User: Fold Pantothenate synthetase from Corynebacterium lipophilum.
Amino acid sequence: MRVITTVEELRAARAEATGTVGLVPTMGALHSGHGTLIERARREVDTLITSVFLNPLQFTDLGDTDDYRNYPRDIEADSTFCEGLGVDIVFAPSVEEMYPGGIPQIWVRTGEMGTVLEGASRPGHFDGVATVVNKLFNLAKPDVAYFGQKDAQQVAVLRRMVRDLNHDVEIRTLPIARAADGLAQSSRNVRLSEAGRSQALALSRSLRTLQEQVDAGALDVDAVRAELAASEGVTLDYLVVVDPDTLQPTSEPGLALVAATVDGVRLIDNALLG
Assistant:
């Protein structure tokens, strides 16, 4: 396995690659959820690239925030993790390497899809995501890119970016990786206390309740939202059901999305109902 840190090295490595090339973009702090993506990609492509880059553009105030400063960083552990799963190339650039000259002047704008839900709570977040993924697609030129369903809005935005900007890449998504207690795997989970982790289970419970309602033929999002908002330790941002392709609200079974702060940590989860 090679760990490379420059754009020049990545371009050279891509030029040498044969067969199908897969890309698993990450922000580091790799866990079993990332492992599921990497293992799937390893089975399906000839050359596997995993990027490890903590992108300041998708954080509040372009990274001038505690969420960015406190985000776990351990490239040695991440490299060891990748090597154990058969990754061929780890691309771990510095911020200066990805954005020479400082914050870029030209961004990918994600329009309405990027301003609702997480985009409303984190203005500019999806513009930052789309901008860095667009750069990674241009540099790594993958045939296939792998993302987790946990970031469902991100997947919808990136699928639309691929379509609108004519990227020659297929996006494949994998189901959410969950702990035994049902909590969606996230790098942020390590910041939860024992009590906070228990309280955070209210998010996945609310999604299961919505699915049970759909199974029974009586979807009542308002009731589930009120119950979740009243849960101990949970500060609810949103619980909605939207069309999975457009992210527009729907009264029919669709994509249920939830976001809340628990124990000072912002968490998201989702489920395709039906």
Observations:
- The longest helix spans residues 194-216.
- DSSP finds ten helices and nine strands in the chain.
